Amino acid sequence: MLTIALLCGSQPAIAQQTDPLAPTGTWSANVDGAAITPPMGWNSWNAFFTDLDEEKVLASAQVIVDTGLAAKGYRYINLDEGWWQHRRDDGRMLANTDRFPSTRTPDGATSFRPFTDRLHGMGLKAGLYSDLGRNTCAQAYMPDQTNLPRGTLTQREVGLYGHIDQDISQFFGEWGFDYIKIDGCGLRAYGPESERVVSGRYRALDPILNLETVALSDIPAVRGLFGEVKTALMRYNPDNDFVLSLCIWGSAHVRAWAKDIGNVSRTSDDITPHWGRMLTNFDTAVTRELYAHPGSWNDPDMLFIGKGDFDADHLTEARSHFTLWAFLNAPLLIGSDLRNTPQPLMDIFGNSALIALNQDPGGHQAVLAYDTDDLQILVKTLADGDKAVAILNRSSAPVEATLTAAHMKLRDDAAIATTDLWNGEGASFTGEMKVTVAPRETRAWRVRGNRALEDGMYLSELPGQVNPAVDGLTVPQVDPTIHRAASFGTRGSGARPFYTGWGGARADSTPYGRVLQVAGQHFASGIGVLANSRLEARNEGHRRFTASVGVDDSAEDADNEVTFALYGDGRLLTRSEPLSRGMPAQSLEADITGVTLLELVARTRDAANGRLPVTWGDAALMQR
Ligand code: GAL
Q: Where are the transmembrane segments (predicted)?
């Protein structure tokens, strides 16, 4: 759509296109920036909050180099909130020279260049933090912190608002940073009625972000501001060496559009060092497998290994946290003070087998193969044809689990070789394997076996290659399945559902978490999406597309007819009859030799309630 192309900034303006379901022949998820695999590194926030300084940051950076973590991929050293002094009256941002002595310059203009040079000289990359509004999170929510910007009211306006181009030019062009995390508190917490504004400490900015109620966010406005940031990043990083991290905690329905602009996008509010809260953050990302691709990843927040439920006395939980983040293709950003992190926790960060999964070039986030409130099985497709499997016990009692060949889409009559990702032990089984999973434990293996689908790949095994360009969801809905933890205290009425994303496209599931089924026929594999959707799928050398399509049995509406069409590089390849609920799945098949981009369009004339789940059953790319 024209509006989207303009807001994205980096995209060339395309012709006015009124039908969002019309094929475009192009992959529309972001590929700009340096995040072809999830970013890895360290961030100051969980270790120090705003109390950071140069010595602390460089000491952790040195440990990353000395312990070999840098060689394993941990490259970004990111300053979170707390690096600034204030904004000078001509708009220039000044670094806090007391905290970062190397930023002092004779003319007082300050420069982070010596700091970033130092990190670059260590073979590392440098990141920093800003806010999309005028003011920041700590100014709003941590007024007692000592390390807040000082000066006049306007000097304390350190956020990007009104200064996007100037700041990005300074941070990247002049100072040499490589990564920026952009928060949204300034767009959320400074309404005219807020105490911080009424008291005269900060200027009002009408809120356009609302974390609790998506209808109160101005989604196009927020998206437009991030689009401006992206344009500036492209301008000042002609070498494409930048990372744009969106931090609006899953609000403004960012799940649906961050993938078109940024490299990583937070799916939830802040992680805390509590088991329940980690599960919340995990839940906000684990069902978004089709919204993450090389170049744009789901971000359930930074690792909190090192504190609370994830400290050295809780290695089971700490290992679970790390395993899950690896399977989610989450950014692996260490959040502990590495000057005194116990060795068993350093060993967790250094688990090469799990790092390899996270950084696998296939870029496929794990898919839920088994899902209950207590136990979940995740399966991740790897570029070399192996699979990785994790079994998470969320509960406080041990669970006897049975892992079956079917969970991994492998044949049950041939041996499956397993390598334990924590102790390296090899084993094999045929058919199924019984495992005991301790409370809060996540068992994980790399596995190799014979594929059930011998001659091709199900699209649901390749989520990194499938992009829900239009997912059919017209009104964002809150997801009732996300764990609601008590970690922020028990005042008030509890954590009510407020993360949107319910109804988004899914692998091996309907958009509402049901099994895929058309006229009584169950599909263990397939893509579930709402009608009036357009999925893009990259084809890397396969020659035939096959699927069985229909309106899912879980649809409330029995009358609406849906037509399924498959396009190859913008050209119609095949189309179904109009199908409604209860009609048997229709087989769709097409020669896709030489086609690089498929588009799967499910169109209906009237899905007024926006809740018409359709199923691309067994959708697969075949060799012959
Ligand atoms: C929050 C953000 C945290 C941290 C903090 C800084 O909004 O989610 O990760 O950056 O702001 O104040």
A: none
The residue extents of the domains of the chain are 367-456, 460-622
pTM for the model stands at 0.96
- Taking each helix axis from N to C end, the angle separating 54-66 and 113-121, rounded to the nearest 10 degrees, works out to 10
Statement: 367-456 belongs to CATH 2.115.10.20 = no
Distances (CA, A) of 235 to 33, 133, 172, 183, 442: 12, 21, 10, 21, 43
How confident is the model over 420-459, as pLDDT tens digits? 999 999 999 999 999 999 999 999 999 999 999 999 999 9
User: What is the C-alpha separation between 268 and 281, in angstroms, rounded?
Assistant: 6
Find, among 457, 350, 464, 369, the residue nearest to 407 by Cα. Answer: 369
Residue 329 confidence class, pLDDT cut points 50, 70, 90:
very high
Q: How far apart are CA 599 and CA 560, in angstroms?
A: 22
Residues with CB under 6 A from ligand 1: 45, 80-81, 137-138, 183, 185, 247, 270
Query: What is the best residue among 83, 132, 183, 333 to mutate for testing ligand 1's pocket, by most ligand atoms within 8 Å of CB?
Result: 183
The protein residue with its alpha carbon nearest to ligand 1, atom 3, reads 270
Q: Could you identify the residue written with the tokens 């996007």?
A: 164
